[in-house]
Design brief:
Number of helices: 15
Number of strands: 4
Order of helices and strands: EEHHHHEEHHHHHHHHHHH
Largest sheet: 2 strands, antiparallel
Strand content: under 5%
Strand order of the largest sheet: 1-2
Shape: globular
CATH class of the largest domain: Mainly Alpha
CATH topology of the largest domain: Serine Threonine Protein Phosphatase 5, Tetratricopeptide repeat
Radius of gyration: 18 Å
Number of domains: 2
Helix content: over 70%
Structural class: mainly alpha
């Protein structure tokens, strides 16, 4: 168990499996046989991470129209939908900003349909040619499912999808050991599994789920941040968030989170995370500036806007703003 702010925080094992494979998509430098990002895909991802997922979804759909059998466009559309769902589900628990519970409704169902399509399209291509890129996309599709089921608290489906995602990443790495994006998926798994309480580690053994090493996971995530094409932003976000949540390494977490707020200064999720970390470090004035920036971020989603305002206002009251 992990003590947080004087309470005992026991992370659900299956929710951890979710997070270990929560592989959203980002842009970065190409390496080895990583899936290449056409300019339109990079634009869609920048729109999503820039705080305008609706614009990113529109751009992603144009990719789908141009290449309806390519999983890339559907993956990016699902990514845009995920960050809307994530924002709408955010709240404060144990002094931490995160999406703790949610993921229901029509948009969430549409998101799951997109995840299923990514898996199917990837498997269709794998039936014709066994490639690392399509195993990575299949893993991403399973991971898309896993994080939504985890948010819903559906532990059985979360575990199934999470294990499938990890397996596909390992298959990708067997074909291309230098694929940094696939290493991110395995790295998140290694990191999270090593944070489990002894009781949950026993449960993991009975469930037949492999163990992991936090040290290896950190190294793999760092490699994904440095060399990934699809996953460096998410690797950075989840590593920062989880250094905070599970290890209370707030300063180290901040070194990973701050570049997100610099690159995407209108994304209220990234701004709130950096503000949260500064608050944990006792830097009230700096934290207040980030939460004020989150409040002024130009959001087009009413549900997300309501969550951001509630969270930012709560922290600003604590910082004396």
């Amino acid at each position: 168990m992990t003590a947080i702010l004087g309470r005992k925080f026991v992370p659900s094992f299956l929710s951890i499996v979710l997070a270990t494979t929560a592989m959203a998509l980002t842009s970065g430098a190409a390496r080895a046989a990583e899936p290449a990002l056409p300019p339109q895909a990079a634009q869609a991802l920048d729109e999503i991470y820039g705080g305008n997922p609706d614009a990113g979804i529109v751009t992603a759909r144009s990719l789908e129209e141009a290449e309806p059998r390519n999983p890339l466009g559907y993956t990016i559309e699902a990514e845009g939908m995920w960050w809307k769902i994530y924002c709408e589900s955010c709240e404060i628990q144990w002094g931490m900003v995160d999406a703790w519970k949610g993921g229901k409704g029509r948009e969430a169902d549409a998101y799951l349909a997109l995840a299923a399509k990514v898996i199917k399209l990837s498997n269709d291509r794998l039936s014709k040619s066994d490639t690392a890129a399509m195993h990575l996309y299949a893993g991403i599709g399973w991971a898309l499912e896993a994080r939504l089921y985890g948010l819903r608290g559906d532990h059985r489906k979360t575990a199934h999808a999470g294990v499938q995602a990890r397996a596909e990443c390992l298959r990708a790495l067997r074909l291309d050991p230098g694929m940094a994006d696939a290493e991110v998926g395995v790295g998140l798994y290694n990191y999270y599994v090593d944070t489990l309480s002894p009781m949950l580690k026993v449960l993991r053994i009975f469930m037949g789920i492999p163990g992991g090493s936090k040290k290896d996971g950190f190294r793999q995530l760092q490699n994904g941040i440095d060399h990934g094409v699809l996953l460096p932003v998410d690797a950075r976000f989840y590593l920062a968030k989880d250094l905070r949540t599970y290890d209370h390494q707030y300063q180290q977490a901040l070194t990973f989170a701050e570049p997100l707020a610099v690159r995407y200064p209108h994304n209220p999720i990234f701004l709130s995370l950096v503000g949260n970390l500064n608050a944990e470090l006792g830097r009230k004035e700096t934290a207040g500036k980030y939460f004020e920036a989150a409040l002024s971020a130009p959001l087009g989603n009413a549900a997300c806007d309501e969550r951001v305002r509630k969270i930012a206002s709560s922290f600003l009251q604590k910082t004396g703003k």
